Amino acid sequence: TAVLLFAASAFADIKAFNAAVTAGNYKQAAIEAKTVWATWDRQRSDTALIAREFGYISYLAGDFAGARDFGQFLKDEGKNLATPDDSPITSAVLLAVANFRLKQDDKTRAALFNGLNETHNLPDVDVLAILAAEALYASDWKSGNYRNAVDSTKLAAAILARGGKGLTV
């Protein structure tokens, strides 16, 4: 009985998460993600995908600490999951951009820049990479570090170009 109640609770929380995402209420979705994650069976085959999705939504909500926690989980546990993380580069970008948004310094900038460079090895461009590139070049421009701004702007343009016309809009 306890297992059934636990499963029903997790299912209800996922429904609340999906409803919040559908409504565009990312702050509420991030809250729901934490609730779901607290009871999530880490042995499920979709654990890496769910962790990345929850991290992405947390990032959109401005909960960079939450996004970092999901990214850190993927870094620490992704290889050892029942179904290993099949997008470790995307997971690394999630962790890097969350760390960068929490503390912008040379170390977090380098980790983000290097992670974004790795996205060239992916077959597709995802929105997280675009948002991460934007965070990087906007910070470089704002700080007045124009040498870094040139590099990060070129990187962002290359990522957008890989995404095609749909992303440049």
Summary?
The protein is mainly alpha-helical.
General description of the model:
- The protein has helices at 2-22, 26-38, 47-60, 64-77, 88-102, 106-118, 127-143, 146-163, 165-168.
- It has 169 residues and is mainly α.
- The protein is globular, with a radius of gyration of 17 Å.
- The termini are far apart.
The low-pLDDT segments are: 1-9
Mean pLDDT, to the nearest integer, reads 90
Q: Give the biggest beta sheet.
A: none
| Proportion of strand residues | under 5%
Q: Could you outline the blueprint of secondary structure elements for this entry?
A:
Layout: H1 2-22, H2 26-38, H3 47-60, H4 64-77, H5 88-102, H6 106-118, H7 127-143, H8 146-163, H9 165-168
Based on the model shown, name its key terms.
mainly alpha; 76% helix
